[in-house]
């Protein structure tokens, strides 16, 4: 008995099956970057510091303004006044070398009109007398503390040697003949203001007094014909 040959088996391939046998395509994965939790904290902290600094600055300004308002309303500070009340000539001597030696005594009146404020006049002061921009003599204000509601006369001895050239001689002779001699008294004195027992920062008080006197003869009464004052202050 003869065996019949095996029947061919028909296998149908579909497009779907063909693609399923291919290796999967290469997929490129885009890397993901994760933001750190504390990455943006630096700028935030700086902003906080700046805000805190501004708050403290505003608070400090408010405290200063409040203190100034309290001082102005409670103590009512007033500026002291100064004036040259007397001017005396002890020596006015022309030497053989045409230099001029002078000794003046100037009385400066200091008036403190405040009720609760003291003034301390410290070291480092200077008082000068000038004629035609040339210094004739100089001296210092004595150190003292001026209490409230007080008027003090400061007697200041001034002495010095200056050049007495022909130009100054001629100008001085003309002024003496007219009876009007212009002088400048320049004062610089360190002053400490004391309010309620608290000493504040020291300041330099500047006073320029333009005087016109009638004579500079020694041991004679010198009359002050006019005076003009300018004031200033530096730290």
TrEMBL record:
Residues 1-28 are annotated as: Disordered. The chain crosses the membrane at residues 54-75. It is found in: Membrane. Keywords: Membrane, Transmembrane, Transmembrane helix. PANTHER family: LATE EMBRYOGENESIS ABUNDANT (LEA) HYDROXYPROLINE-RICH GLYCOPROTEIN FAMILY (PTHR31234), NDR1_HIN1-LIKE PROTEIN 6 (PTHR31234:SF72). It comes from the Eukaryota. This is NDR1/HIN1-like protein 6. The keyword Transmembrane applies. The keyword Transmembrane helix applies. GO terms for biological process: defense response to other organism. One of its GO terms (cellular component) is plasma membrane.
